[in-house]
Amino acid sequence: LYVEHPLGQGQSVPLTREQAHYLFGVMRLGVGGGVALFNGRDGEWQAEVAEAGKRGGALICRHQSRPLQMPPDLWLLFAPIKKARTDFIVEKAAEMGAARIVPVQTDFTNAERIRQDRLQAHAVEAAEQCGGTYVPEVGDLIRLDRMLTDWQGGRQLMFCDEAEAGRASALTSGPAGAPWAILIGPEGGFSPDERVRLAGLDFAHTVSLGPRILRADTAAVAAMTLWQQAMGD
Ligand code: SAM
């Protein structure tokens, strides 16, 4: 169960109404019942129900069952598309172990706003369902050109460009151990200006995800798989 509260030996964790409903109404736990908790920072803790009520309750942390497992330093930058597909991208990125998920506004991105809180909740659910101890942070919508101007830390960029469609690239370039980001474009792809700018950046590596033009949500999953295969995490 995901909670926002800090977790530690003997720590009491108050429950929201929804959490109480889930634990006591749906899971039928009572006082003394056990539940595994994580908050994305303190690892996984085994806790016991101390108080159970209709509108709330409290758990007590007993012992840590797993330490925090940080994912590799991989960001997914993607241009938001239709709502359900954007939700899918965030969910899959969290499952695949992205450390940060950043919606970017490119020249051909239609969305002008996103519901960051909704997307963050999807990331929490995905981490919960795949037994992760870490929850990736979902950023606010940011313009791609601004992001590239403020680029820092030697992070390498896997620029997935549909114009390169052909044999899937082997991701071999980039300094060993460097952090990475994957960039996926919107339905309309990248603009000529964006391609020129990206081609001139020494940290950007243009890659193909295979001979077919994939939908952005499929491309995000394919790119993360290709990255994992090359980087081994
Ligand atoms: N509308 C564009 C077109 O028809 O040329 C296609 C854009 S595609 C639906 C969305 C994004 O997925 C692209 O901007 C790119 O980042 C990624 N993508 C899809 N297929 C790809 C491929 N074969 N190689 C590299 N990137 C790909």
Automatic annotation (TrEMBL):
Its EC number(s)? 2.1.1.193
Reaction catalysis annotation: uridine(1498) in 16S rRNA + S-adenosyl-L-methionine = N(3)-methyluridine(1498) in 16S rRNA + S-adenosyl-L-homocysteine + H(+)
Q: Which InterPro entries match?
A: Alpha/beta_knot_MTases, PUA-like_sf, RsmE, RsmE_MTase_dom, RsmE_PUA-like, tRNA_m1G_MTases_N
What EC class does the entry list?
transferase
Keyword entries, A-Z: Cytoplasm, Methyltransferase, rRNA processing, S-adenosyl-L-methionine, Transferase
Q: Name one GO molecular function term.
A: rRNA (uridine-N3-)-methyltransferase activity
Provide the function of this protein: Specifically methylates the N3 position of the uracil ring of uridine 1498 (m3U1498) in 16S rRNA. Acts on the fully assembled 30S ribosomal subunit.
The UniProt family comment states:
Belongs to the RNA methyltransferase RsmE family.
Name by which UniProt lists this protein = Ribosomal RNA small subunit methyltransferase E
Whose protein is this, by species? Sedimentitalea nanhaiensis
